[in-house]
Specification:
The protein is mainly alpha-helical and 112 residues long. It has six helices and two strands, in the order ββαααααα. The longest helix is centred in the middle third of the chain and has 15 residues, at 53-67.
């Protein structure tokens, strides 16, 4: 396929500019995977649950507040994305992923 075949743009109404898909995704494959997920959201027979770096940020803030210290004293925020990927790669489908799972990855992968 030609390079321009993948130049999908999205108008960002609030800001009044266009963003090329090339500015958002590193590869065509990554863009296609996201598009497939979006299309999959409309499939009535398929559902998914997703976790994100935002969940790690939220949970780290909660745990830090329980401890009475700033979050950056307890966790290295730059490691949240890697911890998320490790959690996804190593999860046990028999047990699922819970907030306790995120706690474990925060402690093992992000703790200062």
């Amino acid at each position: 396929m030609k390079k321009q075949d993948f130049t999908i743009t999205k108008k960002v109404l609030e800001e009044g500019y266009f963003v090329s898909i090339k500015e958002v995704f590193e590869t065509v494959e990554e863009a296609q995977a996201v598009i497939e997920k979006i299309v999959g959201c409309f499939d009535r027979e398929e559902r998914s649950v997703s976790w994100s770096v935002l969940d790690f940020e939220h949970r780290a803030e909660q745990l830090a507040s329980f401890d009475g210290r700033p979050v950056h004293h307890l966790y290295d925020e730059s490691k949240y994305a890697d911890a998320l990927q490790n959690m996804i790669n190593n999860h046990d489908a028999n047990h699922g992923i819970t907030w306790e799972t995120i706690d474990c990855y925060l402690d093992s992968d992000c703790r200062r």
